[in-house]
Amino acid sequence: MHHTGTPRLIAILLTAGLFLSTMAAGTSSGWCQEWGRRVDTVVSPDIPWEIFGDELGYDNRTQQYRAKGNVIITKGAQSLYADEAFYDQRTGIAEVWGNVRLRSGGDTFTGDHAVFNLQTQTGSITNGVLFLKQNHVYISGKHMEKVGPDTYLIHEARLTTCDGPDPAWFITGSKVKVTVEGYGTVEGASFRVKDLPVLYLPYMIFPAKTKRQTGLLPPRIGYSSLNGADIEIPFFWAISDQADATFYQRYLSQRGYMQGVEFNYILDPRSKGTFLADVLSDDESPKNMTDSDSLDVSPLPRTNETRYWLRGRADQALPAGMMAKADLDYVSDQDYLREFDDGPIGFDARPDLADDWGRPLDDRYAALRRSAVRLARDGSSYSLQGGTAYYQRPENLAADRTAQPLGDLYFNMLPRKYFDFPMFTALGSDYTYVWRDAGDTGHRLSLAPEARFPFFPGRYLEFEPSVRYIYNARWVERESTGENDRNSNQAYELAAELSTNLDRIYPIDWMGARKLKHKIRPSFAYRYRSLKEEKQAVPWFEDIMRERPANVFEVSLENFLDARLEDEKGAVSYRQWATFDLTQGYDIGEARHPDDPYDERPFTPLEADLVLRPLPRVDLRGNAQWDHYDKEIVSTTVSLDMALDRRNGLRDYYRLDYVYRRDGQQDLNFLVDVNLFYGLWAGTSLERNIEEKENISSRYWVGYRSQCWATSLFLENTDADSRVGIMIELFGLGEIGAHSSWTRVEDNRD
User: Fold this and answer.
1) Fewest CB within 10 angstroms: 178, 443, 582, 677, which?
2) Where are the beta strands (DSSP E) in 532-571?
3) What pLDDT does residue 652 have?
4) How far apart are CA 621 and CA 637, in angstroms?
5) What's the number of CA atoms in the CB half-sphere (13 Å) around residue 211?
């Protein structure tokens, strides 16, 4: 959405004219010349005003009002102050002078002298200064004219967000013309640092909107070794209150002309969508397979000249309680997301697709990209879903054998109790039609009815046995022979779980918590699955559909720490500070019939899960599995997301992700962004493949923040590109300079 603080000047100036115009509408004329501190209530048929002054008077013959000394004209949150005020009821001319000050909400307008014609809604202000609190913007002019109901001229204007009489930067213009809910023009615009002119534009157009409106957005300029000079000019189109679009015109000196669009709409809280697309006519086609930088992107060839990326998310509420969800992710080639990951609509710029929709895009290095449409209806006792999905392989293989679930249907009945008998029944079922460009195609059907029998053998014990029948059937059309083949398998599954809950509450006084509840849930579970036929049907498109025999006993210990928080006013809230789970399994089938009689391994890896959330902005998670026989860790994952508040509204950020798999995967990603001292901050981030001993990307930055501006220097290296640049941010106006794909996690300035 596009916003600007400039039109607040218009709103305040217009308010100044309307203050006294309402006075002319209907004034009680019973005053003669009197002295002393008196109050005169000026009553309009619509709006009442109050006038205060050390000296107040009214001349019946000339129909003129005059007030002197500490003059205040006020209504609600709006107040006009001056040393002296004069109003001629016959001509409609009002004049105030001497320390003129107008307050409207948190905004303040000051000046030496102001004259308004309240009948034509025109006037002028001398040596005026406007302070807009929301954006912390000061706008001043030697002579300001109100030339129409919504149009203003400002002569010898100056704009800045810096406090004090000697601002670090400001923008000047010989003449500024602004129309409310329209556009503004600046003649002779000059950007200055102190008194040094840095940038000059003979003529500049800018939107002057108090609402989200159509207009140009600030341009983006950058440079990279892969794409060369990079300039992008966005244009925002406010289609309606429920929809908008932003168009991106981008030129890359080494690649060509790229166009992009972002479209957003919202119909109601449950129906909304975001779709993005960009298209490039690449001058570098086909791909130069002798260039090391191009090969660093990927070792695969590329011949297409037209390159693009389409992506988006949408939710839509439908009649009869139905809900539709759509995901779009389609790219022209395997290199695109790695070459063009920066920019306002680049891959790294859209984490909100995950935050807002809960459905993130696949990683830019993913072998497949998923697009799907799903319809769902959830009742109190069932869930019905149907949809279609397409998995794109960006390298465009000549014979693509990727399984495409073009049609699927799921129907699940939630556990339901019948009469007073202690039995709950449930049903899981699904159907899928799978197609391939090259390979076997066909259908799959799965049914899994289940019955559970929970009861409490003692005061502190819960015992729940269950039984489930699983049926899988597949109808396959073989590519090699063209014949239809049908196979199926059936399985019976018995399970039982015995558990108890133990808890204790501790009184504490730490981090706002008054009580801490520790809950322990030990459980013992057994699961037995047997195939009806010894010969197992081999799945033909997804390994996850394989049903295997099972005879496993499992012990688990779950720990929960829940805090009861109370603030200074006594308001109570609850937060789960931590969970810690230990799980150990024993495979009876492996103990009786090991695959390798010389290597019997019935104990499954010991698994530990930890989640720590002691503060609202601290989230630490870890998982590890230990192999008893090889005496080593099978896998480990650790993630940390932490934001620590500092004084003066500053905040430090720490992020860490570590993944280890015994089969060879070992990755490390981290980000650190800290505030140092005297307005300095610094940070670094890294994505590293430890197993391959190579960095996927590394970034470093250092910056300085003042009251009204900030600057940062950054360096970025990826496996395909290198970028270096400087970024300057003028608080209240935006950023200028070179940009990379990195942006700060969050603006630390309130």
Assistant:
1) 677
2) 550-566
3) 93
4) 8
5) 10
How wide is the angle at C-alpha 233 spanned by C-alphas 278 and 362, nearest 5°? 30
Model pLDDT, residue 582: 97
Q: Pick the closest to residue 568 from 620, 519, 635, 512 (CA basis).
A: 512
> Residue 693 contacts by C-beta under 8 Å, 6 or more apart in sequence?
none
Cis peptide before 539 (omega within 30 of 0): no
The amino acid present at 166, given as its one-letter code, is D
Going from the C-alpha of 53 to that of each of 22, 35, 133, 180, the distances in angstroms are 19, 10, 28, 33
Q: How high is the pLDDT of residue 352? A: 60
What is the model's pLDDT at position 29? Answer: 34
The residue ranges of the chain whose pLDDT is under 50 are 1-45, 48, 536-537, 543-545, 734-750
- In angstroms, the CA 669 to CA 683 distance is 14
What is the pTM assigned to this prediction?
0.69
Q: Quick one: how far is CA 452 from the chain centroid?
A: 42
Q: How far apart are CA 424 and CA 416, in angstroms?
A: 5
Lookup result for tokens 């159907």? 431
DSSP state of 295: H
Task: State how far the alpha carbon of 539 is from the alpha carbons of 67, 405, 476, in Å.
Answer: 93, 15, 10
Q: What DSSP state is assigned to residue 738?
A: B
pLDDT at 503: 94
Query: Quick check: helix, strand or coil at residue 422?
Result: coil
- Enumerate the β-bridge partners of residue 519: 503, 560
